[in-house]
Structure prediction request, 84 residues.
Amino acid sequence: MTPTLQVKIMSPNEVLWIGEAVSVSSENSTGSFDILPGHAHFVTLANQGSSVVVRTKEKEAKEFSYTTTIISVMDGIVSIYVDI
Prediction:
């Protein structure tokens, strides 16, 4: 069984997407990064306007782009807060 992450993308008003993923990728002030199963606890502000790519276990790449994005990883759960 392939290890996965639980991903939830939320705006102040609603949950925009929720599901399992094998990776999450984006870009912050230090460059591009990937979040994989087993990732250490992590909080970052993605670069303004950069996309977040969620790769599902079905090998589908879902791309999301928002003005403001905060990404948090804790115990295999990736919480993505957008348009805050």
In short: The chain has one domain: 5-82. The first strand starts at residue 5 and ends at 10. The CA atoms of residues 6 and 77 lie 5 Å apart.
